[in-house]
Amino acid sequence: MIKKSSTQRGEAAGQIPGWLSWLSWGIAILMMALMAFLLAQRVTGVSAVAPPVTVEAPTPEVDPIPEGSAETASLPNYAPAKELNALTRVTNPHTIIPDAIRREASFYTVDKGDSVFSIAVNYDLKPETVLWANYNLLNDNPNMLSIGQDLTIPPTDGVYYEWKEGDTLQKIADQYYVDVQDILLYPGNKLSLTDTNPVIEPGTYIMIPGGWRENQQWLVPTVWRANAGANESIPGACNVPEGGAIGTGYFVWPAANHFLSGNDYWSGHLGIDIAAATGAPIYAADSGVVVYAAPIGGGYGNMIMIDHQNGFHTLYAHLSSINVNCGASVYQGQLIGLAGSTGNSTGPHLHFEIRQFGAFINPWYVLP
User: Fold this and answer.
1) Domains, the chain, ordered by start
2) H-helix or E-strand spanning residue 136
3) 191, 199 contact by CB (below 8 A)
4) How many Å apart are CA 355 and CA 251, to the nearest integer?
5) Judging by DSSP bridges, how do beta strands 288-296 and 329-330 pair with one another?
6) How do 272-275 and 205-209 pair as beta strands?
7) CA–CA dist 323, 304 (Å, integer)
8) For the whole model, what pTM was predicted?
9) pLDDT at 2 over 90
10) 156-191 pLDDT, tens per residue?
11) Element (H, E) at 161
C-alpha cells in the first residue's frame, strides 16, 4: 500500500496549496504598489498646472519723454494694439414712451396753404374739433379760413367750451352728449372729482373730451331748374331753359392732379380740395348745363355749378377764371375754367363738390 505525502493529504482534504497562497500575496503587493504610483502621479500633475504666484515690482514713476526727441527716436516701433471687437450701445433720445399729453389749448397762426383739415392732422385732432373751437372766427365754415388768423387748438378731441353765467356741469354735459364724469376726470380742467357742481368763473375755458355738436353748415344751395321738381335757387343763378347736355352718370377728375391740397371730405367740409396751381385747367367732371358761373359769397370765390340733368350737380370753386357762360351746355372733360385762390383761401386749389338730388356725396366714392 502506497502512503501519501502531507501535501497530497492537504489537497485531498480541500485546503489551499502553499504555493498558491504565496502567489496571491505577491499579486496584492504589486497592486498596492501600482495604486501608490498612480496616486503620486496625479498629485504631481495638479501641482504642475497650478499657476505660479508672482509678485510684480512697483513701476517707478518717470517723466514722459517728449515726442520727437532723440530718446523717442531710439524707442522700439511696437505694432499697434489689435482693435477689440465688442458690443456698443448708442444713446437714442427717441423711445417708445409717448410724448407728454397736452393738457391746455395752444394757438396757431394760419399760414399759406393751410386748411382746417391739415391743421387738425398736424395736431392729431379731428377737423371738427378745430372748427368748433374757432366759431368766433370761422362761424362753422372752413372756407372762411384766412392767412394770419390766430386759431385756438384744443388739447384733445371734443368741444373747447367757454363757461357762461348760469352754466352747470350737467347742463353742459347734456348739451354736448357726454357724462359729467368725463368733464371732471379731464386733468386739464383741474376740477375736484368729488364736486359735481363746482364754481367756475364765466369766461373760463373747459375741455369737454369726446363732446360733439352739429355743424351749422354754410353751403351754396343747389341751383334747381324749372324741370327739376324744386324751386330753390341763389341770387345770380342762370335762367336756363329746358334741354341741353345730359350727363353720363360717370365722373372724371376735374383737374390734372388726383390728390388733395387742403381739406378732405368731412362733416364740416362736404367736398374735397384738389391740388391745382393758379391757372391750371379745370374740366367738367361730366356733361351738363351751367346753372351758375360767377363770384359768390361764403368764401367760395369764383364758382361754377353744373346741372347734369340726371339728379347730379357738380360745383367748382376758388377759380381764377371762368371760361363758360351761364346756361351753356358743356361736355365731360371740357375746359370750363382755371384754378385759383379767390374767395377765402390760403392757397390755390380746386374746391370740388358732387351732389345727388341736393344731398352731398363724397367725391372719392364716384371719381375713378
Assistant:
1) 106-209 (3.10.350.10), 226-365 (2.70.70.10)
2) helix 135-138
3) no
4) 12
5) antiparallel
6) unpaired
7) 10
8) 0.67
9) no
10) 999 999 999 999 999 999 999 999 999 999 999 999
11) strand 158-162
